[in-house]
Design goal:
By secondary structure, the protein is of the alpha+beta class. It has 17 helices and 14 strands. The strands form five sheets. A five-stranded mixed β-sheet has the order 1-2-10-7-3, with no helix packed on it.
């Protein structure tokens, strides 16, 4: 009997044994409580992602959008406005529109652009580590990785850095829910509405005064997309998706890397001695502790996996974290090993919708580990005081206190 239930407390606490059972016994699985079919094997997910003609992202991709039947979804304060959006966030566009819109947004996320952000990233990490040493410690999530990621996202968009912590607060609230409570609750919808309404107010001000932000925000505000300028709500949703994508996941990935290296002092020592291992160390942390558990699609053309037909209109959910532990793809898949190198992983997605900010995130991860190990090579984790966010969509630390060590 398959024991996987994505919102069950035991699964949220540690899904990996359940993922292993799915991969071995039910690689395409339908739970009677939920709308999607779940895929858990690396090869199946990569094959599905390349079959762009068989599914769409326009109906949503997250568990909040796809896990439950439409009649079970909570009302969203901006529901009517959302329905009027034609050119939505790039993650919810299908080709060929997706291809064209993504190309217009891609410049600040290319490898060379990420490299230009590196001095800023180093400066911010060094400053936070210096503050942490004075205080006697810091939170690897909020004080370090989160501080870095939201400011990099703001810099890319051209948003004022004085608003960075406000954005972090809304975004953290948006995803801080208990899976066993079911779909998104009111306080999360309120956070989403507050974020979007704040952005719309800013957009109205910028347009009125012809303000130039000096970043990607200018493209969203003033360039033509598909033959016209984006209207205010469309701009706000693009801003919010880039902020969320750039802010929410990295603190969990970065703190996971810090935690696993602390658990494996020999690997931490190797990284401290050879900073060139930082990209592989961050890649392994992304594979081993991928924060985003699932993202999905709505099927538009019949698909088949392991003899099971999935019909148009049904939903398909990709269990990224399960695929990253697939023994068919990775030797010793349940071992954390930074000497593994840089194998292909699914932590940034795959195919046309691969994460727009992957190069930026890899730069942030490399800088975070290099600077931390240079300044605090023997850091200690106060594991007893750590806080976790474990729901069906996200897993990882909400807070991870660390000390400089001896």
């Amino acid at each position: 009997m398959i024991r996987y239930d994505p919102t069950h407390r035991a699964v949220c606490d540690d899904p990996n044994p359940y993922y292993a059972q799915l991969r071995d016994e039910a690689p395409v699985f339908k739970h009677p409580k939920y709308a999607p079919w779940f895929l858990s094997r690396f090869e199946d997910i990569t094959r599905a992602l390349l079959d762009l003609k068989s599914h769409t992202v326009t109906e949503g991709t997250t568990s909040m959008q796809l896990l439950y039947a439409p009649e079970e979804q909570p009302d969203h304060p901006l529901e009517e406005a959302i329905e009027q959006i034609e050119i939505g966030a790039v993650a919810m566009l299908d080709p060929p529109v997706h291809t064209r819109v993504r190309a217009q947004l891609n410049a600040p996320f290319k490898p060379g652009a990420a490299e230009k952000l590196e001095p800023l990233a180093r400066q911010w990490v060094r400053e936070r580590l210096a503050v942490g040493r004075e205080r006697g410690g810091l939170d690897a999530c909020g004080d370090l990785a989160g501080f870095l990621s939201v400011r990099i996202a703001c810099t890319i968009l051209g948003l004022p850095l004085e608003d960075a912590d406000r954005y972090s607060g809304w975004i953290n609230q948006l995803f801080d829910h208990d899976a066993i409570e079911g779909p998104m609750k009111g306080f999360q919808a309120e956070a989403s509405a507050a974020l979007h309404l704040h952005l719309i107010e800013q957009i109205l001000h910028w347009r009125k005064h012809d303000t130039r932000l000096g970043g990607l925000g200018d493209v969203l505000l003033y360039d033509d997309f598909e033959g016209r300028k984006l209207h205010d709500l469309e701009v706000a949703f693009h801003f919010s998706m880039i902020l969320i994508g750039g802010t929410e996941t990295f603190p969990k990935a970065g703190s996971a890397a810090i935690h696993r290296l602390w658990q494996h002092p020999d690997q931490r020592a190797a990284l401290a001695a050879d900073p060139g291992l930082a990209p592989a160390a961050f890649n392994e942390a992304l594979r081993f502790d991928m924060p985003t558990q699932m993202l999905g699609r709505t099927v538009v053309r019949e698909m088949e996996f392991h003899g099971q037909t999935i019909a148009p209109g049904e939903r398909l959910m990709f269990l990224w974290a399960a695929a990253n532990r697939d023994e068919r793809q990775f030797e010793r898949a349940d071992e954390f090993d930074i000497s593994r190198g840089m194998p292909k992983i699914l932590s940034f997605g795959y195919g046309a919708h691969m994460c727009l900010g992957a190069h930026v995130a890899r730069m942030e991860g490399r800088v975070l580990l290099e600077e931390l190990l240079a300044a605090w090579p023997n850091y200690e984790v106060v594991e007893a005081d750590a806080g976790r966010l474990d729901n069906e969509f996200f897993r990882g630390f909400k807070s991870l206190p660390i000390l400089a060590g001896s």
